[in-house]
Amino acid sequence: MEIDRSLPHPGASKKRIIFITGGARSGKSRFAEELARQFSGPKAYLATAQALDEEMAERIRRHRETRSGDWQTLEEPMDVTGCVEDQGDRFHLILLDCLTLWVSNLMMAGWDGAKILEEGDRLLGACRQAKCSLILVGNEVGMGIVPENAQARLFRDLSGFIQQNAARQSDEVYFMVSGLPVKIKGA
């Protein structure tokens, strides 16, 4: 699959919203960073992961090391919408990785489902209003069996609804399969 080389340069009149989804370890973040390299100018990596244990801290450290010096890392596990609103004019591109961890963070903080869906709508509105292009990354969590407990089913449902909306709002959508991008929406 060839990467779409028609992405506009940052001064172009049309910004882009790109959504990348797929299973765990399918190459979503790597592909998002490949697409991001097509943009010149200042870039932000909006990371939603929290280093709650040693393994996650190490994973975050490795991700930071793979990014070149033209990235600014914004670590925001909760107020992702506010971050996009505040930072959308400072950068030519924001790569948000990932929506799924963000939903998990909100759930673990005690947010109810309706409030999370409302915040998902607010986030996508902020993405549309931002002057910069955005690349959104999320895990496809709905292709397995029905989870055995209510909390896991709620997580699957909320992630699925927010990511359906992200796909609708995006100019391009890619589904990652074993490291290969399959374009499912866009020119």
Please describe what this structure looks like.
- The chain has 187 residues and is an alpha/beta fold.
- It has one domain: 3-Layer(aba) Sandwich (Rossmann fold), CATH 3.40.50.300.
- Helix content is 41%, strand content 21%.
- It is built from six helices and seven strands.
- The protein has a seven-stranded mixed β-sheet, with helices on both faces.
- Strand 6 and strand 7 (180-185) form a beta hairpin.
- Helix 3 (80-87) runs parallel beside helix 5 (113-129) and helix 5 packs parallel to helix 6.
- The longest helix has 20 residues, at 150-169.
- It starts with 16 loop residues before the first strand and ends with a strand.
Provide the CATH topology: Rossmann fold
- Poorly predicted tracts of residues: 1-13
Question: In angstroms, what separates the terminal alpha carbons?
Answer: 14 Å
Order of helices and strands: EHEHEHEHHEHEE
Give me the Rg, rounded: 16 Å
Give the helix proportion (percent range): 40-55%
Strand content: 15-25%
Largest sheet: 7 strands, mixed
